[in-house]
Design goal:
The complex is a heterodimer. Chain A is built from two helices and three strands; from the N terminus they run βαβαβ. Chain A is α+β, with helices and mostly antiparallel strands. Chain A has one domain: 2-Layer Sandwich (Mth169, Chain: A), CATH 3.30.1280.10. By secondary structure, chain B is an alpha/beta fold. Chain B has a single domain, classed as Class I glutamine amidotransferase (GATase) domain (Rossmann fold). In chain B, the strands form two sheets. In chain B, strands 2-1-3-4-11-10-9-6-7 form a nine-stranded mixed β-sheet, sandwiched between helices. Chain B has a two-stranded antiparallel sheet with strand order 5-8. The chains are: A alpha+beta, B alpha/beta. Chain A: This is Phosphoribosylformylglycinamidine synthase subunit PurS. Chain A: It comes from Stappia taiwanensis.
Chain lengths: 79, 224
């Protein structure tokens, strides 16, 4: 079973890398970019019985390692 | 005073901290490999600076889950002293032994220079030889030193005297919230700080401002 975990910074947490990318886009002439937030994507292949079990396991992985929940949110997508 | 320095793949200030401990206490610390599961009988455990696991995922994130960290957490829970410097501070937050997180520097660049620190709390074994408001020189070298904590956590840290050191007025090098350079846990027996006091303990290094931190710790045991 394949899954995708997306980790993003929480709203209100300053993202200096996102800001730098925003500046880079502006320098390239892309107009109308209001904001860029950088995140991470993890493609995980699991040996799980069903989507429910896979999701539960991934949530545990996010809480314990993939995300730092002090500053980051995560979203799980079973593909 | 007996101490141990934990060595992770990618640690690079372990020798520096060992040298500082030897210089100040006269005793060589024991080196402990990250894959070990037990600690020797010591008074202080140090998580050194460096780039454990190449800062993969997040700085300190993988090291914080290393086998030895369970023993370090138990050691801290028993009230004994744990010091994390730079990458060690990042590990302590990642391991949940200290609150908050260390994010990419606001200016995005790696900052390697000397800063001025202000001592905020003197009520801990690490800071007992300082006076409140003392300003002292200390080197820094980091990319992810921008301390962040939510408003409730920050208020708790400030209100209970758990901010140990701040970057002195208008010298914040990384965007750290409230200019925080180092914090204590609730019991005052775990200190995490981004600056490197171990790199300013003898004249050859350009000064001895960092000595007081190690003298505080050694003194805490001499007094006990």
């Amino acid at each position: 079973m394949k899954a995708r975990v997306t980790v993003t910074l929480k709203t209100g947490v300053l993202d200096p890398q996102g800001k730098a990318i925003e500046g880079g886009l502006a320098a390239l002439g892309f107009a109308g970019v209001d904001s860029v937030r950088q995140g991470k994507v993890f493609d995980v292949e699991l040996n799980a019985q069903d989507a429910g079990a896979a999701r539960a396991s991934l949530e545990d992985m996010c809480e314990k390692l993939l995300a730092n929940t002090v500053i980051e949110n995560y979203a799980i997508e079973i593909l | 005073m007996k101490s141990a320095v934990i060595v992770f793949p990618g640690s690079n200030r372990d020798h520096d901290i060992a040298h500082a401990l030897k210089t100040v206490t006269g005793q060589d610390p024991v080196s402990v490999w990250h894959a070990d599961t037990t600690l020797p009988d010591v008074d202080l455990v140090v998580l050194p600076g460096g780039f454990s696991y190449g800062d993969y995922l997040r700085s300190g994130a993988i090291a914080a889950r290393a086998p030895i960290m369970r023993a370090v957490a138990e050691f801290a829970a028993s009230g004994r002293l744990v010091l994390g410097v730079c990458n060690g501070f990042q590990m302590l937050t990642e391991a949940g032994l200290l609150p908050g997180a260390l994010m990419r520097n606001e200016g995005l660049t790696f900052v390697c220079r000397e800063v001025l620190l202000e001592t905020v709390s003197t009520d801990s074994p690490f800071t007992r030889n300082f006076a409140k408001g003392d300003v002292w020189r200390c080197p820094i070298a980091h990319h992810d030193g921008n301390y962040f904590a939510d408003a409730d956590t920050l208020a708790r840290l400030e209100d209970t005297g758990r901010v140990a050191f701040r970057y002195a007025r208008d010298t914040n090098p990384n965007g750290s919230i409230n200019d925080i350079a180092g914090i204590l846990n609730e019991g005052g027996n775990v200190l995490g700080m981004m600056p490197h006091p171990e790199n300013l303990v003898e004249a050859l290094q350009g000064g001895t401002d960092g000595r007081r931190l190690f003298e505080s710790i050694a003194g805490a045991f001499a007094a006990a």
